[in-house]
Amino acid sequence: MCIRDRVIDHPKLKKDKAALIMNVSPFIGNVSEYRGIYTRQHAYVKTLDGPWFLFDNIADPFQMNNLVYKPGYQKLQKEMEIVLRKELRKANDDFMPRQYYIDKWGYKLKDGAIDLSLIHILPHAFRLQRDLLDSGKIDLLFLEAAVNDRANGTDSLTQIQSLEGIIRHAKTANPNMDIIMMSFADPDKLQDYDQGKKPVEIINHELVADHYQLPSLNLAKEVRDKIQQKEFSWTYDFKAVSYTHLDVYKRQR
Fold it and tell me: Which of 12, 57, 135, 162 has the fewest CB atoms within 10 Å, i.e. the most exposed one?
């Protein structure tokens, strides 16, 4: 991850550093608020309920062995907790529930907005103004619908027209808005690539991106290639697309 590359493992650093990570206000799936730190060797994360996970990133680079509450690691866990609290003080973060920050920053959530990512592209096009643009000026928009369009059986014409509608609407609201299109992975797309076929949804995304000269990230192909190289496992790393990697460990506790 970029934090480790640029902060923790930077060759010019003479002493260990702690990089603060957080999910202040989760909106998707059964995701908890969390705060955590990465050091050269360890990753430690806690939720509002307490310590969530502790990993030794050198001995366990794929983070498969959660050391939280395990015998022999209590001292390390306490030390990481002290470092985390120090970083939170530096960030002036009291680690409150998500609603505290929603109220503090004046966000207005309307019915259904939280689950917007779980529907296909057509409702996005009609709800863009209400669920996104009405909240204020948007400078950067990440647009991804390839996963749910496959799951919902959205036809190609609807996909293309809806993507185009979102882009044109967004650019009308802010002509200087940067838009990055993304196509994430799912089992059907992985199967397509295994059969030597490019998924239709990705073809449609890239067709629209090319027309509007927008960057398009084919994350599905990247994930599939990493799985083929045994760097990832769909079962353990990506089977719950709507959850973060951290939630896999929470469900195993």
Answer: 12
